[in-house]
């Protein structure tokens, strides 16, 4: 019997299964920048690695400011490769509009409904400003706690971060369902920690990323279907 829920944030709560590389690719294109996909992929990876290695994001940063920082790193890399990007502000606005709409119409109603029956803890690889972001998006009240990689010093796919989430819930892993969009970063390590698992799979992963053959206990194709899984 499931008595508590762990959930990922990026690619799960914020974008309903759309990987952020895909989100950025659409945003760049919509704003008049038709870049070679391999070049944009390199820029995306460069920005993520830079933020992972360096303390750039402050706890006070909103989601929009976080996106601005990422886009600045991406466009800086592209410029160093001789590719000029226009409309950085419009790219950020496009992404924020997508996230706000998804949270308002999909994630928030689901979290509100489930939080009435289960304690929910967020387990995420993020930059130290997750609580600020949750406040900004109006969903902080649905979470019993946040286990954030840059705060606890452990990153997915290390299974210990899921154990920390279980500790916040105060429940044994076998009574906890982990929801995430990444087989390798969410599903496999959460299962190894003893949790039940639910994969959010819209077929919109990061092209080129390795995928595990491990099967989740259940699969959904939109976050809106989470309350319908047989364990809840």
Secondary-structure element sequence?
EHHHHEHEHHEHEE
The assembly state of the depicted protein chains is: single chain
Gross morphology is globular
Distance between the termini: 8 Å
Mean pLDDT: 94
Strand order of the largest sheet: 3-2-1-4-5-6
Quantity of strands, as a count: 6
Structural class by helix and strand composition: alpha/beta
Percent of residues in β-strands: 5-15%
Q: How many helix segments?
A: 8
For the biggest sheet, the summary is: 6 strands, parallel
Give the low-pLDDT segments: none
What is the rounded Rg? 17 Å
Task: Please describe what this structure looks like.
The N and C termini lie close together (8 Å). The longest helix is centred in the middle third of the chain and has 28 residues. This protein has a six-stranded parallel β-sheet with strand order 3-2-1-4-5-6, with helices on both faces. Helix 1 packs across helix 4, helix 2 packs across helix 3 and helix 3 packs antiparallel against helix 4. Helix 5 links the parallel strand 2 and strand 3. It is of the alpha/beta class and 232 residues long. The chain has eight helices and six strands.
Question: Topology, please?
Answer:
Layout: E1 4-7, H1 20-30, H2 37-53, H3 63-80, H4 88-115, E2 120-124, H5 130-137, E3 145-148, H6 149-152, H7 160-169, E4 176-180, H8 183-192, E5 196-200, E6 218-220
Parallel strand pairs: 1-2, 1-4, 2-3, 4-5, 5-6
């Amino acid at each position: 019997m499931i008595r508590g829920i762990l959930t990922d944030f990026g690619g799960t709560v914020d974008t309903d299964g759309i990987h952020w590389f895909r989100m950025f690719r659409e945003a760049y294109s919509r704003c008049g920048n038709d870049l070679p996909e391999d070049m944009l992929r390199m820029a995306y990876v460069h920005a993520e690695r830079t933020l992972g290695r360096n303390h750039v994001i402050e706890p006070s940063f909103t989601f929009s400011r976080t996106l601005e920082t990422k886009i600045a790193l991406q466009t800086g890399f592209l410029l160093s490769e001789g590719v000029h990007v226009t409309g950085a502000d419009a790219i950020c606005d496009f992404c924020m509009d997508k996230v706000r709409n998804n949270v308002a119409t999909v994630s928030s109603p689901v979290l509100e409904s489930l939080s009435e029956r289960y304690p929910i803890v967020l387990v995420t690889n993020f930059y130290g400003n997750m609580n600020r972001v949750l406040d900004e998006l109006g969903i902080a009240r649905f979470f019993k706690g946040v286990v954030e990689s840059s705060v606890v010093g452990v990153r997915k796919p290390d299974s210990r971060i899921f154990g920390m989430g279980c500790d916040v819930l105060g429940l044994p892993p076998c009574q906890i369902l982990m929801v995430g969009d990444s087989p390798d970063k969410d599903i496999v390590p959460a299962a190894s920690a003893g949790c039940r698992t639910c994969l959010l799979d819209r077929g919109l992963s990061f092209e080129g990323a390795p995928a595990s053959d491990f099967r989740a206990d259940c699969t959904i194709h939109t976050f809106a279907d989470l309350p319908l899984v047989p364990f809840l």
